[in-house]
Amino acid sequence: MTSASTPSTPKGERRRNELIDAAAALLAEGGFEAVRHRAVSERAGLPLASTTYYFDSLDDLVSAAVERHSRNELAEWADWLDELAARQRGVDTLVELVLDILLGRPPQDGTPDMDAVLLRYERLVATGRRPYLRPLMTTLAAELEELLLRFFERSGMPVQPDRLKQLIALVDGAVVNALVEVNPDPRAAARRMLRAALQE
Amino acid sequence: MTSASTPSTPKGERRRNELIDAAAALLAEGGFEAVRHRAVSERAGLPLASTTYYFDSLDDLVSAAVERHSRNELAEWADWLDELAARQRGVDTLVELVLDILLGRPPQDGTPDMDAVLLRYERLVATGRRPYLRPLMTTLAAELEELLLRFFERSGMPVQPDRLKQLIALVDGAVVNALVEVNPDPRAAARRMLRAALQE
Amino acid sequence: MTSASTPSTPKGERRRNELIDAAAALLAEGGFEAVRHRAVSERAGLPLASTTYYFDSLDDLVSAAVERHSRNELAEWADWLDELAARQRGVDTLVELVLDILLGRPPQDGTPDMDAVLLRYERLVATGRRPYLRPLMTTLAAELEELLLRFFERSGMPVQPDRLKQLIALVDGAVVNALVEVNPDPRAAARRMLRAALQE
Amino acid sequence: MTSASTPSTPKGERRRNELIDAAAALLAEGGFEAVRHRAVSERAGLPLASTTYYFDSLDDLVSAAVERHSRNELAEWADWLDELAARQRGVDTLVELVLDILLGRPPQDGTPDMDAVLLRYERLVATGRRPYLRPLMTTLAAELEELLLRFFERSGMPVQPDRLKQLIALVDGAVVNALVEVNPDPRAAARRMLRAALQE
DNA sequence: TATGAATGAGTCTTCATTCAT
DNA sequence: GATGAATGAAGACTCATTCAT
């Protein structure tokens, strides 16, 4: 009904942003269930009512958080893409980079960063019951594919779109299946799949 | 805390069962969020308090529901496996059967049965945030793999375990990516992947 | 959904009753708008959640409050009816009694008791936007008519149902119009109308 | 407290007017509860804050809306009065016209227009709890009576003020009682009463 | 003179769990 | 062993009003 206040002032813009950041952080840490008006407002240090002031509904806030999170990932890679493609050599390095792009870069300390990986798949699956996420997720998926396409190309190992889809499916399938393991290491699982497929 | 009531009386056993059935049905229809004490008790036609009497917590009930649902699926196929393997001919038929096993048999009327498909992936991804589901899901995954291994074998097209994992990943990856489409048809996406992989 | 807990224990019965009483009091004092979960629970000195435990929805609670209030009025008169009919003499006394029944007995101190009168008409008009009150209000109206019919009869001044409806309309119309006066005295207005009609 | 902004500029006057129109429309459609700052501003296509800028409080806005609505009704009839009085013949036609004036003209399609009828009585009863409406409603009631008096006179069937009050009471009483019926047809109820009274 | 921004208080309702019986 | 009763905490969302600009 009341259309969300798209703030015109810099301050309003900033606050709206802080709410999205807070929501994105909660999303990453606790999944979709963790994104609640109260939790977001407390995390952002803003009044509860600000969450409904800046967003028409919780769904809107969730959408914004999903987009923020995904765009951050995408943007990060878009910047480095050419540089990386030029630098790397060999299938193994390529594989790691693809995994970095698809699953996020793991923390240096060797701990697998489950939260980040998980979110990618929660996003996909959650869309199944949240139709309002579909347009956003479709766009995002297309952008990611585009990015990877260019990446393979610059890396001197161009792939057809269908082949790329296949590689992505392989990674994603490996990950979701690895999620159930007692000591899940989805990246390792995806790595195995991807190497095998690329070295055929 | 009352420890989980493992009922000794036949009547208790029966009621516990009815609760699990109700929970499994809700799970299939509405995902994890739909499994609530009240909803389960009403569905089962049993008192609200019976849900906490027979299960220590909602998580326990959810676990039982996941197991029940998965075992039902598995059992269904175990029964028909040999019969099916003997009957079918050709890659296309094989592919459909594999999809039936992995994604559930679609309703006859052509409507893609999203709910059933969705649950398989919600289960996998939900395990990421529900460690208590891991042992169960690991066992279940192994049994499913075992089943498929035997199935390919009887179909005269034996596959190595690693190759099977790859095929499963392909299907699962195709599905989770198809979930975000505006008119999702995950089965069709999985079919394309699987056929391509099997016909190489 | 969850059907309202119809308490079986005496204590539960008592608490449910206290909630209805509290709601009826608020209704009388502040009209329909004043009946809120919080207000009712605070007035009754019971937890907020008890209001939703004993009543499926606020509408249910409002209905119960309306019924309680009306039944109290009705019951009061049913008890005294024959005695009063035997005692009174003359049209003027009859008129006052009819007004007592329709508008409630005014406080002794001469202050017109607006709240009580008002509620009768708020109830009627509110039903216009609250279909769920219709069955209840229809029954109540029929019972009131029945009561008045018997009352006129015992008073030695029997009236036809249609004539009674006319008299009631006269009173009600007089009252709702008197409500807007700067110093409203709806009872006086109704008295004038009724006397004129009865003395024709 | 900023005192009520009585705008001096023509533009201010116009906007204030648009707000009143919007509020009156909402009042007619949804009763008093429907008149909210947000709803009014959206309906008028004006900023939310304009509602508090041009009106000290919501009550002020409601008052203005009630007045606007009533004056519109009154004005409509004042224009046609003489013409109608000259044209009509017979008690039945007279009755319909009186009902038109008191209850609003029903839509042609035969559907009883509950909203319009309802508002007349909500206005009266609401005044019981809104003293600030009393002066306004008193004036309005007097004007309506005046109008009807003249109308009866021109129709060749002059009535005394007291007799008119009686007829109005009859209509109003019939209507408020008809409001509770399961299929309310207040106009029909009022018609019966009025005909009976006029044909005595 | 206007108005976008902002929010404290409040709306109804749901829910997992505890506890007395 | 079973369950009705009960509730604190939280859920999404609305709203009249204030205030800085």
Secondary structure elements and their pairing?
4 copies of one chain form a homotetramer.
Chain A (H helix, E strand, L loop, with lengths): L9 H21 L6 H8 L3 H7 L3 H30 L2 H14 L10 H14 L6 H21 L6 H18 L7 H14 L1
Helix pairs in contact in A: 1-2, 1-4, 1-6, 2-3, 4-7, 5-9, 8-9
The structure holds a DNA duplex (21 and 21 nucleotides).
Could you explain the architecture of this structure?
- Four copies of one chain form a homotetramer.
- The first copy, chain A, has helices at residues 10-30, 37-44, 48-54, 58-87, 90-103, 114-127, 134-154, 161-178, 186-199.
- Chain A is mainly α and 200 residues long.
- Chain A folds into two domains: 1-56, Orthogonal Bundle (Arc Repressor Mutant, subunit A); 67-199.
- In chain A, helix 5 (90-103) crosses helix 9 (186-199).
- The mean pLDDT of chain A is 91.
- Chain A binds chain B through residues 30-31, 33, 114, 118, 121-122, 124-125, 127-129, 133-135, 137-138, 141, 162, 165-166, 168-174, 176-177, 179-182, 184, 193, 196-197, and chain B through 31, 33, 114, 118, 121-122, 124-125, 127-129, 133-135, 137-138, 141, 162, 165-166, 168-174, 176-177, 179-182, 184, 193, 196-197.
- The structure holds a DNA duplex (21 and 21 nucleotides).
